[in-house]
Amino acid sequence: MPVYTCTAAQGTLTGESKAALAAEITRIHVAINHVPPAYVNVIFSEPPPDSVFAGGEPGAPLIVSGWVRRGHPQEEATRLALELSSAAARVTGVPEGHVMVVLQDGPARSAVEGGLVLPEPGEEKEWLARRGEFGRAS
Amino acid sequence: MPVYTCTAAQGTLTGESKAALAAEITRIHVAINHVPPAYVNVIFSEPPPDSVFAGGEPGAPLIVSGWVRRGHPQEEATRLALELSSAAARVTGVPEGHVMVVLQDGPARSAVEGGLVLPEPGEEKEWLARRGEFGRAS
Amino acid sequence: MPVYTCTAAQGTLTGESKAALAAEITRIHVAINHVPPAYVNVIFSEPPPDSVFAGGEPGAPLIVSGWVRRGHPQEEATRLALELSSAAARVTGVPEGHVMVVLQDGPARSAVEGGLVLPEPGEEKEWLARRGEFGRAS
Lengths: 138, 138, 138
Description:
3 copies of one chain form a homotrimer. Chain A is built from 3 helices and 8 strands; from the N terminus they run βαββββαβββα. Chain A is α/β, with parallel strands linked by helices.
């Protein structure tokens, strides 16, 4: 259900650190927002170094930007962002001073996965049962 | 006015299926949200396969993420998301089980196209008349 | 604190015009939203020309999409979008008729930079003091 996009200039992340970061984002999101791991999508976007700026100068940020369903308590969104930031620094070696995490939320009813409108937070169980009838890969 | 970004690992979509999906997104958005086709922007982002994960493992989702003006009725946003999901699977051959559609909205007054602040939903007509004085390519 | 993503087909922007646009976005954001320049992130995404569509046809838009903290007055967001649009056309040579600017906002408390939850608009001063103790590159 969530979609995370991680952006860093080419050369900032290795294949190994991308896999490790995807695994950590998935683990943390599952623990806090209660969806099965298979529903956590993580994409990496790696523009060339001359396409990444901070303060108008070539920069080296790692930006983790996530879309999540609206309706989770704010304190959980804050905790999610803090844990993602800390994990991103830890598994990639990028200093946490260069890590930024942004969570954007939107109405579950404006999103569709596997042909089904997403459930409101807290109503995942019935949705997953319906979803199971189709199968993730159906 | 809307901006759709379609993300799938390299090799998931052909040039033909990208053109077909852009055409379908445009057709469906025009039918439901009542803007002229020329104002529907569709971008494809195709990271290498080692940059796309679902459940912490290399994955093959097709994610269609759209920005639309806030103020459309929720049921129309839901219908738009459902029709986009179904069309995306149909024209690309990606199983709908792997398709995700997310619509995010924002205030029309926080967006500018062709030098003009976007109109609220329902106020497109006057805006388009003003816009015509400039010309799309002016 | 803000993250701007500029999207245009490969070949639309030169290295020089990307640097100039990043500098202008930074200057304008700093002037209107009162954050130090070092906190303005700008990323360029340049898909191949066959991946950019307007009206279902290959197109040539320049799309500037920004994430900003929620809570700034709407009139300032509108002014920010208008000035960014005008600057983007001026420094890149892309006709303003092809430029689109979208500002999306989200709760400051759903975002983390340098390990610290972002401040609400107007509360930057204390936050920057705390941040200084860590150092941007710490």
